[in-house]
Description:
By secondary structure, the chain is mainly alpha-helical. 45% of the residues lie in helices and 0% in strands. The protein contains seven helices and no strands. The chain starts with 36 loop residues before the first helix and ends with a helix.
Amino acid sequence: MSPGGHHRLQGNDHRAQGMFATEPHHPPIHSLFILPNDYRQEGRFMDWYLAVLKQYAVFQGRARRKEYWMFTLFNIIAYVVCSIIDGVLGTMIFMPIYALAVLLPSLAVTIRRLHDTDRSGWWILIALVPAVGGIILLIFTCLEGTAGENRFGANPKQDGAAQLA
């Protein structure tokens, strides 16, 4: 330990920025999005969100429950953050911009989720039925996907690691 309580990195430590590192080691910010151990093998929280964004307007294929719900969870967090920023600034700009930016990916992942349960993507329109439509769509998105291949493609659980690549 050097004076001031900081650790010196030695040798070929990948964190060293020169001959000596004078800053204490802090975990990188992206490590805050790592889920418990059983999820680490399949990817980080943020990876699930980015996987959906990479398929921005892909309406074919299937999306497993984890992909859909991780994307939904991140969206809820982002909406709350945007609302707080809009509230602090006294504007209504960040929330509508974010909502517009994720509109197509949200529709696409919901339709792919319906495909995983062997339903047509047109079932998304059931959400327009007052009172019960949203509840029915919620139930559909919570159901286990069809085992094996269905008319919309291969089971995404069989190649779950490939989805995050």
